[in-house]
């Protein structure tokens, strides 16, 4: 029996996420190891190069959004972004000194930063119109990321060359472009401008406080993706071991994402956020005390809780805290603060802390910042409870 056009599009969107995140998984987890072992950079320089990726995201995502709004051609822009990022990935291994490595990653990030927001915009519009679940799309990204780190880790360990991370990155993004054939061409239009939405959201204290907590909680989670490979090697692991660790960590996200809505419905949004953040805090604290490689491998699966539950719960809370007509703007700001600013700041500070106190000291710092973020979530909970009581009084 032939699949309907809607089901066919749904499968192609899942395929895109599989290939795109395979590319991300091939490159980013081992990028710090590549810069250290093959380019000879110190950890402060590595922190600067790595933090350029999320820092560019903060500035480039709104630009991609404005170009998309002006042209009404998000699918074409997505093709351009993926193709250009793929080409810069092929060029990057030829660069040698720190300034060119920094410039090269900036060029790559300018285009790579457009891939997720453009694809999310198109896919969210599709699932809302066709009664599908975004979680069943996004979990294919988690699977692609997990498989990529495992495969690329084994290839680099076997060949002795870390340049493979860029070749796999470029190939995967090129394959993702092929899956765009069946992608929807347009996303929904927004009714409120970004500037107007920002003015409204600045007045929402619980929303602003949750942004700060997201910065403190999720910034270290994303920075860990860059330094976890270095940590695995420091406890006696191998490049293949790095791949295995990421396979367990990223792979554990998929089932939690699939069942996240049921868990949130049962326990509540705030509880799930606090619980998942507490798991992250405990994990970073454990790493501070220099555990064995076996313990590190065993604890990677808790990332399913700290990421697979936190992401959907945080998005739901953002939508709950924001007024109805500015929810799209609220989600965009949340993404910029968590995925962009928090990622950039903690990636940079992580490199500096490693140079002074080692990779275990970095995880102690991450644990402390995450704990502060959890305290802020409790404050958000009190504010939201007070607001509900006022509305029902």
From TrEMBL:
<dbReference type="InterPro" id="IPR005829">
    <property type="entry name" value="Sugar_transporter_CS"/>
</dbReference>
<feature type="domain" description="Major facilitator superfamily (MFS) profile">
    <location>
        <begin position="165"/>
        <end position="393"/>
    </location>
</feature>
<keyword id="KW-0813">Transport</keyword>
<feature type="transmembrane region" description="Helical">
    <location>
        <begin position="139"/>
        <end position="156"/>
    </location>
</feature>
<feature type="transmembrane region" description="Helical">
    <location>
        <begin position="228"/>
        <end position="251"/>
    </location>
</feature>
<dbReference type="Pfam" id="PF12832">
    <property type="entry name" value="MFS_1_like"/>
</dbReference>
<dbReference type="InterPro" id="IPR036259">
    <property type="entry name" value="MFS_trans_sf"/>
</dbReference>
<dbReference type="GO" id="GO:0015212">
    <property type="term" value="F:cytidine transmembrane transporter activity"/>
</dbReference>
<feature type="transmembrane region" description="Helical">
    <location>
        <begin position="76"/>
        <end position="95"/>
    </location>
</feature>
<feature type="transmembrane region" description="Helical">
    <location>
        <begin position="330"/>
        <end position="354"/>
    </location>
</feature>
<keyword id="KW-1133">Transmembrane helix</keyword>
<feature type="transmembrane region" description="Helical">
    <location>
        <begin position="360"/>
        <end position="378"/>
    </location>
</feature>
<dbReference type="GO" id="GO:0015213">
    <property type="term" value="F:uridine transmembrane transporter activity"/>
</dbReference>
<feature type="transmembrane region" description="Helical">
    <location>
        <begin position="263"/>
        <end position="289"/>
    </location>
</feature>
<dbReference type="InterPro" id="IPR024989">
    <property type="entry name" value="MFS_assoc_dom"/>
</dbReference>
<feature type="transmembrane region" description="Helical">
    <location>
        <begin position="204"/>
        <end position="222"/>
    </location>
</feature>
<feature type="transmembrane region" description="Helical">
    <location>
        <begin position="12"/>
        <end position="34"/>
    </location>
</feature>
<keyword id="KW-0472">Membrane</keyword>
<feature type="transmembrane region" description="Helical">
    <location>
        <begin position="295"/>
        <end position="318"/>
    </location>
</feature>
<dbReference type="InterPro" id="IPR020846">
    <property type="entry name" value="MFS_dom"/>
</dbReference>
<protein>
    <submittedName>
        <fullName>MFS transporter</fullName>
    </submittedName>
</protein>
<feature type="transmembrane region" description="Helical">
    <location>
        <begin position="46"/>
        <end position="64"/>
    </location>
</feature>
<feature type="transmembrane region" description="Helical">
    <location>
        <begin position="101"/>
        <end position="127"/>
    </location>
</feature>
<keyword id="KW-0812">Transmembrane</keyword>
<keyword id="KW-1003">Cell membrane</keyword>
<feature type="transmembrane region" description="Helical">
    <location>
        <begin position="162"/>
        <end position="183"/>
    </location>
</feature>
<dbReference type="GO" id="GO:0005886">
    <property type="term" value="C:plasma membrane"/>
</dbReference>
């Amino acid at each position: 029996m032939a699949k309907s056009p809607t089901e066919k599009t749904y499968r192609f969107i899942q395929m895109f996420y599989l290939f795109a995140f395979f590319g991300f998984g091939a490159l980013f987890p081992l990028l710090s190891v590549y810069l250290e072992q093959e380019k000879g950079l110190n950890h402060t320089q590595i922190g600067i190069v790595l933090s350029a990726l999320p820092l560019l995201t903060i500035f480039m995502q709104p630009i991609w959004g404005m170009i998309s709004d002006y042209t009404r051609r998000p699918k074409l822009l997505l093709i351009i972004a993926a193709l250009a990022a793929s080409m810069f990935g092929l060029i990057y291994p030829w660069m040698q000194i720190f300034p060119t490595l920094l410039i090269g990653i900036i060029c790559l990030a300018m285009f790579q930063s457009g891939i997720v927001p453009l694809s999310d915009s198109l896919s969210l519009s599709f699932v809302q119109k066709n009664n599908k679940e975004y979680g069943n799309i996004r979990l294919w990204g988690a699977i692609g990321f997990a498989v990529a780190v495992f495969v690329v880790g084994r290839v680099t360990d076997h060949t002795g060359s870390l340049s493979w991370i860029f070749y796999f990155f470029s190939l995967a993004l090129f394959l993702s472009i092929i899956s765009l054939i069946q992608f929807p061409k347009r996303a929904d239009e927004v009714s409120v401008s970004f500037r107007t939405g920002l003015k409204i959201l600045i007045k929402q204290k619980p929303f602003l406080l949750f942004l700060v907590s997201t910065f403190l909680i999720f910034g270290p989670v994303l920075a860990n993706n860059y330094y976890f490979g270095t940590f695995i090697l420091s406890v006696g692991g191998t490049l293949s071991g790095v791949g295995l660790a990421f396979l367990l960590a990223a792979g554990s996200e998929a089932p939690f994402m699939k069942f996240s809505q049921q868990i949130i419905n049962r326990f509540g949004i705030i509880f799930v956020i606090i619980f998942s953040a507490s798991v992250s805090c405990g994990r970073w604290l454990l790493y501070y005390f220099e555990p064995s490689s076996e313990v590190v491998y065993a604890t990677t699966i808790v990332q399913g809780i700290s990421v697979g539950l936190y992401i959907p719960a945080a998005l739901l809370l953002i939508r709950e805290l924001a007024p109805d007509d500015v929810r799209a703007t609220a989600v965009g700001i949340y993404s910029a603060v968590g995925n962009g600013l928090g990622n950039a700041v903690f990636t940079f500070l992580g490199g500096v802390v490693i140079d002074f106190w080692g990779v275990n000291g970095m995880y102690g710092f991450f644990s402390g910042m995450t704990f502060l973020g959890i305290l802020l979530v409790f404050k958000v909970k009190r504010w939201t409870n007070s607001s509900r009581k006022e509305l029902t009084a």
